[in-house]
TrEMBL record:
Residue ranges of domain Dihydroprymidine dehydrogenase in the record: 25-136
Documented EC number(s): 1.4.1.13, 1.4.1.14
Cofactors required: [4Fe-4S] cluster
Natural source organism: Sphingobium boeckii
The protein's name in its UniProt record: Glutamate synthase (NADPH/NADH) small chain
Length: 481
């Protein structure tokens, strides 16, 4: 019997794709890592232990068949590996790039527990799907037999796009409404190119457009149509808007010019990368070039902002975070990348006031210490008396996370039920809101979460909407009879 290509984790060291040198990658918005060559991808996939209980799959929100497509990759059966990966995910190459694998699949890899270092799952996932695109293995969207029913989806982010793909494959007419001029939501405008190059997103969107999904871009529900207007146009609706309301800082001077929202800053940078004319960038208000930049926050959005500022040529970039490094909510890999690129982290620090009236000139802050654990189990930060200090700042970026917008007011639907956090209230057995035929999925239900969870929700809600639409069609037939 031929020697198995698997279970090589003892003989082979863990290896990730080579990263470009920090000084080089800080000069552009291209992805920072080179892709695995074929031999290296097969070699790393062969480290998988093929364990009986694959914790990597269990801890993946999509329950991807990870050990199986790793084995196929190790055997050189790349097309089959892609097809298996694609069977559970609508965007495997995107998840391979931006998922926090250190907290999900790789963080729960059995050989990681054994001390041999996890299989580099995300890098292999990215490799096999990029290879599929290059070789023409990614097939056009297969559209099912027409059902004569129409679905409207509000929001062209990962949840909306995923639901649209499954529903279109089921034979429904699908229309997507999004307020931006390009589809993709935060994949397009919220995540910088050095983590997710925009052609990777645009080719996914184009595949859906080629499959007959109709995109209404630059369309604001509430301005161009109310929710009720869309209900009359479609047999079912899905709200998948995400959460976009930035959390605020309550401190003197926070309204000074130059204290800006993270999403405004990132959208401006991404638009510039697309080649758009962006006045806020050209006039310098959302451009870090030559400035002392302070970013407040410790999540992945904060990491996106500090690393964007480095690439824009900031004079200095500091990240102010109220907890320590071990308690950061963002990916530790992103922190490491930011440190390599020259970002200075000011741990256990929180802003108290912002200097400047005509324009921000500095941040007054205080050192923090970690007290007893709060309700979430994390040690709560508390001020350390007498530890005040000041940082020079020409640009301050607030990256404290996002809450739900007031959708009932925005959509002209006062009867749309929300939770006390402003997220949409749904029946979790059907993913339907309190309004019949109106479903919701993704961050607008969960609160700010991961892209992979949005994809999972999009997949699940498509199934629930399909059941609802079949029942509706059956009732219509009985009524006509």
């Amino acid at each position: 019997m031929a020697d198995s290509p698997m279970l090589k984790f003892v003989a082979r060291d863990q290896s990730y794709p080579e990263k470009r040198a920090p000084a080089l990658r800080a000069e552009d918005f291209q992805e920072i890592s080179n892709r695995f060559p074929v031999e290296k991808a097969e070699d790393q996939a062969g480290r998988c232990s093929q364990c009986g209980v694959p914790y990597c799959s269990v801890h993946c929100p999509l329950h991807n068949h990870i050990p199986d497509w790793l084995r196929l990759t190790a055997e050189g059966r790349l097309r089959e590996a892609y097809e298996l990966s694609n069977s559970t995910s609508t965007m495997p190459e995107i998840c391979g790039r931006i998922c926090p694998q250190d907290r999900l699949c790789e963080g729960n890899c059995v050989i990681e527990f054994s001390g041999h270092g996890a299989v580099t799952i995300g890098s292999v996932e990215k490799f096999i799907t990029d290879t599929a695109w290059e070789n023409g293995w990614v097939e056009p969207l297969h559209v099912g037999a027409p059902r004569g029913q129409s679905v409207g989806i509000i929001g062209a982010g990962p949840a909306g796009l995923t639901a649209a793909e499954y529903l279109r494959a089921g034979g429904y007419d699908v229309h997507i409404y999004d307020r931006h001029d390009r589809a993709g939501g935060l994949l397009t405008y919220g995540i910088p190119g050095f983590k997710l190059e925009k052609p990777v997103v645009m080719r996914r969107v184009q595949r859906l457009k080629d499959g007959g999904i109709v995109f209404h871009e630059g369309f604001e529900v509430g301005r161009d149509a109310t929710l009720e207007d869309l209900r009359t146009r479609h047999d079912a609706l899905l709200i998948a808007t995400g959460v976009y309301k930035p959390r605020e800082i309550k401190a003197p001077g926070v309204g000074a010019p130059g204290v800006v929202e993270a999403l405004d800053y990132l959208i401006t940078s991404n638009r510039k990368s697309f080649g758009d004319a962006v006045p806020a960038f050209e006039d310098g208000s959302l451009n870090a070039e030559g400035k002392n930049v302070v970013v407040i926050g410790g999540g992945d959005t904060a990491m996106d902002c500090v690393r964007t500022a480095i690439r824009q040529g900031a004079a200095s970039v500091k990240c102010l975070y109220r907890r320590d490094k071990a308690n950061m909510p963002g990916s530790q890999n992103e922190v490491k990348n930011a440190e390599e690129e020259g970002v200075d982290f000011v741990w256990l620090s929180a802003p108290e006031a912002f200097d400047g009236t005509e324009k921000v000139s500095g941040v007054r802050a205080a050192k923090m210490r970690l007290g007893q654990p709060d309700a979430s189990g994390r040690r709560a930060p508390e001020p350390d008396p007498g530890s005040e200090f000041r940082l020079d700042a020409d640009l301050v970026i607030k990256a404290l996370g996002y809450d739900a917008e007031d959708l009932p007011h925005m959509f002209g639907a006062d009867d749309l039920s929300v939770t006390r956090w402003g997220t949409l209230r749904v029946d979790h057995k059907s993913m339907q809101t309190n309004i019949e035929g109106v479903f919701a999925a993704g961050d607008i239900v969960r609160g700010a979460s991961l892209v992979v969870w949005a994809i999972r929700d999009g997949r699940d809600v498509a199934d629930h909407m399909h059941k609802f639409l079949k029942t509706k069609a059956r009732a219509k037939l009985l009524e006509a009879a």
